[in-house]
Fold these 2 entries.
Entry 1:
Amino acid sequence: MCREPRSGTVGIVQKSTTPAVHATSLSKVYGAGSPGDVTVVALDNVTVSFPRERFTAIMGPSGSGKSTLLHCLAGLDKPTNGQVFIGGTETSSLSDGRLTALRRDRVGFVFQAFNLLPTLTAWENIVLPLDLAGRRPDQAFADAVIDGIGLRHRLGHKPSQLSGGQQQRVACARALITKPDVVFADEPTGALDSKSSADVLGFLRRSVDELGQTVVMVTHEPTAAAYADRVLFFADGRVVGELTDPTADRVLDRMKDLEKVVV
Ligand SMILES: Nc1ncnc2c1ncn2[C@@H]1O[C@H](COP(=O)(O)OP(=O)(O)OP(=O)(O)O)[C@@H](O)[C@H]1O
């Protein structure tokens, strides 16, 4: 097991001009397996890029395909057509073993339900992806992540001894500890109160600004989207709009327009 980090050191920034994530002509059709099935087009020919060291939020009406997009980008689900590149590596042609390794080493995922292992301490949960890969933590980076989540004094506690917001900050640290090409977050604040949400979103924001990380987050909340550099709006499985330097009010106005169109 990796040892706990020291305090007081600074994180390390990755630099590259390749987008963190790029997808071309991505489609996902559910229920196309056998004749007579009802088919649902969850993704409809989506081409999208996520630059490094940026925080992007994805918003859209319920059922518009946001989670499907995140799962296909992260290699948790297979698109029906199209290609996904993680840091320049095309993922559809990878063997199952290589895809598993890529997901473990180069992609972080934060779920609404935290998904921490209950028998491990906070620290053991955070370094689990490194342990599975047989890697040691970059001490300076691990210190910056631990200081960033503000839970150095709780690292020996099990998830059941932590609040929901604290557990989600541990989950964010676990997603970041490998210095992945990208962290995907699917409704990371959906189960949290507003104070805990602000703690989690503030940490994700600082992970981009101070640690050079890349975050792509699905959210229903305009206040959460306002932490991002850019918001992509989704409807009917397609990207239908974009807002840079969002504020909660501008996001809300766009969402109202979208919901009028969709209803
Ligand atoms: N396994 C599945 N089988 C069949 N249809 C599915 C499956 N998963 C998702 N869908 C459908 O695909 C569409 C997109 O779903 P998705 O969960 O990606 O939307 P979403 O925008 O994330 O929705 P929400 O905001 O409600 O979470 C929906 O019509 C949904 O019913």
Entry 2:
Amino acid sequence: MRTEGINCKIAIFGVGLIGGSLALCFKGKPGIEVVGYAHEPKIHERYLKSGVLDHVTLSIEEAALDADFIFLSVPVGMLNYYLQELNKLPLKKGCIITDVGSTKASITAAAKTLDFRDVFFIGGHPMAGSERSGVEAASPLLFENAYYVLTPQPEMEEDVYNKLHNLLSYTRAQVIRVEPEHHDDIVGAISHLPHIIAVALVNQISSYNQNEPLYQLLAAGGFRDITRIASSDPVVWRDILLSNREVLLRLLRDWNKQVGQFTQVLEESNGEAIEAAFREAGSFRDQLPERRKGIINALFDIYIDVPDTPGIIGRIATELGTARINLSNMQIIESREDVPGILRLSFRQEDDMERAIELLTHLGYTVRS
Ligand SMILES: NC(=O)C1=CN([C@@H]2O[C@H](COP(=O)(O)OP(=O)(O)OC[C@H]3O[C@@H](n4cnc5c(N)ncnc54)[C@H](O)[C@@H]3O)[C@@H](O)[C@H]2O)C=CC1
Ligand SMILES: O=C(O)C(=O)Cc1ccc(O)cc1
């Protein structure tokens, strides 16, 4: 799809996890200059230090005036503000403004009310990310094999749409076109509702833990897996949930029905209904795509018995680093004098996990997955 070398200037407003990952996809490509807009001097320093941009500026005008593409990758609640600010400027003819917000209906409606002469707005949402935030968490591989939704107005010229589509091929994501309201219904169900459930579940257990710390000590495995997304950025998620409020209120009513059904089958001690619920869920879940990066990405975990010797964790991290195996997280689960510690290593790529198993087994460690 991409034609070799696109001569252009790309301005990124909000160079965090998503904006920073986009910058890394574009930086260094022939003819491309990537400029980041920072809204505060402290943020300016942080962006500069990250090295993901060619240039950083505190001036909206300097970032935007001669840009060919402007990516708004700020929290959803700030998108409209920047659209309004850009609308006051004499932007370059043909400039395409896009956003990466997790909701699409409200920003598309806001853009419709603005009269951008010879400037175009196309809503966007890369459907990949993580619970981490900030430019330090950015990665050029974040969007690889993920879907990237674009929500152009029906009257959008194909040429303009194709320009953005072409540029996005640097992300190695698969671009799909979806209607904004339809996007919010679906993403509300598969991403926003699960985030609410994860947060509510963690807070429920945390309240039990106040009087009985064993809850926290024993909470591992499945609990940790299904609640990873509860560690997501509070401001980013405040804005997402408020922006998709109507959809989420409907989804939460349906969720209450699901909880009600489980309550009822337990009250009735209805084993058959429990089995049926697990069977039905299992058969749908088994059909979910495995290899494509989904919106809620899995971590690949392995567990290693480690003797309680000083420096052991550093040694394991060094071995993995030397073998260029990308480690996402490491955590000691149990460390007492009388038992070997258990070290959990988490990887974002299955291939990294498999190579780590091979390496660490070869080095004599007991590895379980
Ligand atoms: N976190 C995720 O996994 C995904 C997030 N998104 C969307 O991407 C957008 C950004 O989210 P993340 O990159 O995760 O957040 P982040 O917190 O990593 O990055 C946000 C960036 O915006 C900057 N920022 C905050 N307020 C600003 C303001 N008033 N003016 C200018 N810059 C400001 C911050 O300094 C930061 O660099 C959000 O709209 C979110 O809905 C989309 C896909 C995935
Ligand atoms: O961490 C995960 O698995 C996510 O679900 C990340 C995510 C967060 C917000 C989005 O709009 C898209 C993806």
